[in-house]
Amino acid sequence: MAETVYLSAKVCGCVQGVFFRSFVQHAARNLGLKGYVRNLPGGDAVEVKAEGTKQQLERLVEQLKIGPPGAQVARIETSWSDYPEQFRDFDIRY
Q1: What tens digit of pLDDT does each residue of 22-45 get?
Q2: DSSP per residue over the chain, as a string?
Q3: Residue 86 — φ and ψ, nearest 5°?
Q4: Residue pLDDT, tens place only, 35-86
Q5: Residue 93 counted as domain residue
Q6: Which of 29, 38, 39, 59 is catalytic?
Q7: CATH of residue 32
Q8: Which listed residue (21, 75, 88, 93) is catalytic?
Q9: Which pLDDT score, from 0 to 100, does residue 1 have?
Q10: Quick check: 37 and 8 in contact, CB under 8 A?
Q11: Position 44 in a domain
Q12: Is 94 contained in some domain?
């Protein structure tokens, strides 16, 4: 069985008000990931916390680079850890 790893990502650009959180939740659930996505203060960034296999998470990062129609991703900051927080599902946080 593949080892579970933890991804923390900050997606910057035109990513609020364009259904980015719903897009991320759908993509993460399709990949079998657990975690959450939320808007960050300032209006130009979204935070993603997710756990799964490295391969699953790398596929999510590829989706984050694209985003939904209307989104314009300027950059993504990622960090990886071996210590997942044991999420139950993938949620949108407000």
Answers
A1: 999 999 999 999 999 999 999 999
A2: -PPEEEEEEEEEEE-SSSSHHHHHHHHHHHTT-EEEEEEPTTSSEEEEEEEEEHHHHHHHHHHHHH-STT-EEEEEEEEEES-----SSEEEE-
A3: 60, 60
A4: 999 999 999 999 999 999 999 999 999 999 999 999 999 999 999 999 777 8
A5: no
A6: 39
A7: 3.30.70.100
A8: 21
A9: 64
A10: no
A11: yes
A12: no
In total, how many domains does the chain have? 1
Using only C-alpha atoms, the chain has a radius of gyration, in whole angstroms, of 12
Using CA atoms, how far apart are residues 20 and 50, in angstroms rounded to an integer?
15
Tokens at 91, concatenated? 């949620």
Q: Which domain holds residue 61?
A: 4-88
Identify the residue whose tokens are 């590829």: 62
At position 83, the amino acid (one-letter code) is Y
Angle at 77 between CA 71 and CA 78, to 5 degrees: 115
To the query of whether residue 39 is one of the catalytic residues in this protein, the response is: yes
